[in-house]
Design a protein that fits this description.
about 210 residues; mainly alpha; 9 helices; about 0% strand
Length: about 210
């Protein structure tokens, strides 16, 4: 019998109970090309089910990874061939407003390919990641490599945590949510320091 899902995961029980792996793949897929869907939460819920023996943990991981990569590549194609005009015209229907898109695009432009990997863990950027890469003209193979790395880390982290944490995953998720702000702030400070060092070295070379 499937275990009761804790807290915010509870509403996904009927979906997982009826559709199993199809639910995992479908929800992760559509979330990753911009449609609002609980991709991360269904991934965690599926990990809990796998820990209880209701699903195979390897199958959950593989399906979620493939769905995440394919979803982001659909987003990349939308951005690449539809362009900003397409995003501005239709993005509002999936809560990707021009303001939200431009803010994400500026962030993406500053940090390049690394964002494709890190964005997988950031709500908002995860959904717009592929579209922004496409509109910015990022080379597809470079995007594919960073995207696959991010998907592997994202899926691996949440499925593994949920698999072993079981019914305690709600507390684990809340704890990570509290501290992730500090983690990303630290990453931002480190990135700023590296950029400043690079600019300082370039200035010294120009002066010498």
């Amino acid at each position: 019998m499937a275990p009761p899902l804790p807290g915010p995961l509870e509403h996904l029980a009927p979906l997982l109970g009826h559709y199993g792996y199809w639910a995992v793949g479908g929800v992760v897929l559509v979330e990753d090309f911009g449609i609002p869907a609980p991709g991360e939460t269904i991934l965690i819920a599926a990990g809990v089910y796998a820990g209880a023996g209701e699903l195979n943990v390897v199958a959950v991981g593989v399906i979620a990874f493939v769905a995440a990569v394919v979803g982001d590549n659909i987003g990349y194609l939308i951005g690449r061939f539809g362009g900003r005009a397409f995003v501005h015209r239709w993005g509002k229907y999936v809560f990707l407003t021009p303001e939200r898109f431009e803010k994400a695009e500026r962030f993406f432009g500053r940090h390049g390919g690394k964002v494709v990997t890190v964005a997988r863990f950031v709500e908002g950027l995860r959904q717009a990641n592929g579209i922004i890469a496409g509109t910015s003209g990022m080379h597809w193979l470079r995007f594919l490599a960073f995207n696959a790395l991010g998907a592997a880390l994202w899926v691996g982290l949440w499925v593994t945590l949920a698999y072993f944490a079981g019914s305690h995953i709600g507390a684990v998720y809340d704890t990570i949510g509290r501290y992730e702000v500090y983690v990303f702030a630290g990453i931002g400070v480190l990135a700023a320091a590296l950029i400043a060092r690079h600019l300082l070295r370039r200035r010294r070379r120009q002066e010498s």
